C-alpha cells in the first residue's frame, strides 16, 4: 500500500538568485525536482515534530530562485547527478541533506541568509563543488532524524561539516544524560577512515593480548649477545642476564619506536623470553620497529627525523616490550642516559587518539 502524499507549503522569502545556472549545455532542468521536494518536505516536518507515520511529505515548491539541474555521470551514464543552483554565492548544493540547513534557515528568517550555518554560506565551511563534479558523500541521505534536528545553528568543523562533538557536548549539558553512537555521515574523511578502523578493530579482537599491534608504541633492544636474556634482578631492575655464567651484567640499550610490521609466522609465549627456532628469517618471523622521530619538529624532512626513520630494525619478539611499561623497564637507568627516541615517544603519548570515533 503506497503512502499518502501531503503537500507542505513553504514560507515566503528567499535569497535565491535565478541567474545562477549551469555554464554549459550539458545539464537538464529537473522540473519538478521531485527528489528535493520530497526529501526536504520530510526533513522539515520531522524537524518541526509534525511528521506522522505512513505519510510522504512534499514541499509545494523550492524557495524562489532555486532550481535543480541534472547531468549523467561520465563514468556511469546510467547514474544521474543532481545539483541545486540559486545560491547568491554561485555555489551548488549536491544533495537535499546538504541544502536542508540552508533551507531551514531561510524558512526561519524570512529568506535572509545572514548567519546561515550551511556549508556554502559559512566562511569557515568548505564550498560545494561547481556543477559537473559530484561531491556526494557516502551515506549522506541516511542521516538520522536526531542528526537533522541538530544540524542547523551549530558550529561547523574544519571540513565544513557539522561538528558532532560540539553538538553532543551541548546536548549533554542540556539533558545531563547522553548515550548515543557518534556518526559523521556528511564527512567524507569519517566515512573513509571508518572502513579502515573497522578492519583494525576486528583484527585486534582476535589477537592475543601479549602480541604487539601495528602502530603500537614499543621499547626495543637492537641486539642481545649470545646466551643473554632480560631478567629482573634482586633490586627489581630489568638487566641483562647470561644464562651460561648465571650472572647479571649491565642494562639493555633501550630505544623507543612504533611497530611497523608484525610477525607473519605464528608466535608462542616462549618467544617473549628467548629466541626460538623459526621456519623463516627475522624479516618474516620478527617485528619491524621504526625509531620514533621528534614530534615537535615542524617537518619530517629535517635531518633529525630522516636519521631516525631510516634506522628501522627487524627484531625477534623477546627484543620488544610495550611502551606502557617504560617506567618498569627503565628503572635504574639515569634519565640522562636514555635514548633520544624514548623522550620522543613520551612526548607523542601525551596526546589522545580515538579509534572508530
From TrEMBL:
Family annotation (InterPro entries)? Clr2 (IPR038986), Clr2_N (IPR031915)
Per UniProt, the ranges with Polar residues bias are 11-27
Example GO BP: silent mating-type cassette heterochromatin formation
* Region Disordered, annotated ranges: 1-32
Q: Where is the signal peptide?
A: none
GO cellular component: a single term: mating-type region heterochromatin
Domain (Cryptic loci regulator 2 N-terminal): give its ranges: 57-121
Q: What is this protein called?
A: Cryptic loci regulator 2 N-terminal domain-containing protein
- Source species of the chain: Cryomyces minteri
What broad taxonomic lineage does this protein's source fall under? Eukaryota, Fungi, Dikarya, Ascomycota, Pezizomycotina
Amino acid at each position: 500500500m503506497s503512502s499518502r502524499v501531503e503537500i507542505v507549503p513553504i514560507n515566503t522569502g528567499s535569497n535565491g538568485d535565478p541567474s545562477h545556472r549551469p555554464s554549459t549545455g550539458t545539464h537538464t532542468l529537473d522540473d519538478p525536482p521531485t527528489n528535493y521536494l520530497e526529501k526536504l518536505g520530510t526533513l522539515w516536518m520531522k524537524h518541526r515534530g509534525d511528521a506522522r507515520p505512513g505519510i510522504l511529505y512534499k514541499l509545494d515548491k523550492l524557495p524562489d530562485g532555486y532550481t535543480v539541474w541534472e547531468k549523467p555521470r561520465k563514468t556511469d551514464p546510467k547514474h544521474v547527478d543532481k545539483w541545486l543552483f540559486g545560491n547568491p554565492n554561485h555555489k551548488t548544493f549536491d544533495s537535499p541533506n546538504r541544502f536542508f540547513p540552508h533551507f531551514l534557515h531561510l524558512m526561519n528568517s524570512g529568506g535572509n541568509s545572514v548567519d546561515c550555518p550551511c556549508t556554502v554560506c559559512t566562511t569557515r565551511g568548505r564550498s560545494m563543488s561547481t556543477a559537473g563534479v559530484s561531491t556526494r558523500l557516502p551515506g549522506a541521505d541516511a542521516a538520522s532524524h536526531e542528526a537533522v534536528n541538530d544540524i542547523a545553528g551549530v558550529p561547523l568543523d574544519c571540513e565544513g561539516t557539522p561538528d558532532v562533538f560540539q553538538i553532543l557536548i551541548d546536548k549533554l549539558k542540556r539533558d545531563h544524560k547522553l548515550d548515543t553512537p557518534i556518526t559523521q555521515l556528511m564527512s567524507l574523511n569519517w566515512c573513509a577512515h571508518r572502513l579502515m578502523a573497522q578492519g583494525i578493530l576486528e583484527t585486534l579482537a582476535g589477537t592475543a593480548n601479549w602480541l604487539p599491534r601495528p602502530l603500537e608504541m614499543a621499547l626495543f633492544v637492537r641486539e642481545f649477545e649470545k646466551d643473554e636474556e632480560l631478567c629482573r634482578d634482586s633490586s627489581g631492575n630489568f638487566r641483562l642476564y647470561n644464562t651460561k655464567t648465571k650472572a647479571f651484567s649491565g642494562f639493555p640499550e633501550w630505544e623507543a619506536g612504533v611497530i611497523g610490521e608484525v610477525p607473519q609466522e605464528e608466535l608462542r609465549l616462549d618467544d617473549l623470553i628467548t629466541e626460538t627456532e623459526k621456519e623463516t628469517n627475522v624479516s618474516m618471523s620478527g617485528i619491524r620497529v621504526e625509531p620514533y622521530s621528534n614530534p615537535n619538529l615542524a617537518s619530517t624532512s629535517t635531518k633529525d627525523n630522516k636519521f631516525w626513520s631510516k634506522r628501522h630494525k627487524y627484531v625477534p619478539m623477546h627484543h620488544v616490550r610495550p611502551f606502557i611499561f617504560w617506567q618498569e623497564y627503565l628503572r635504574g637507568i639515569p634519565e640522562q642516559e636514555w635514548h633520544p627516541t624514548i623522550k620522543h615517544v613520551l612526548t607523542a603519548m601525551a596526546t589522545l587518539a580515538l579509534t572508530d570515533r
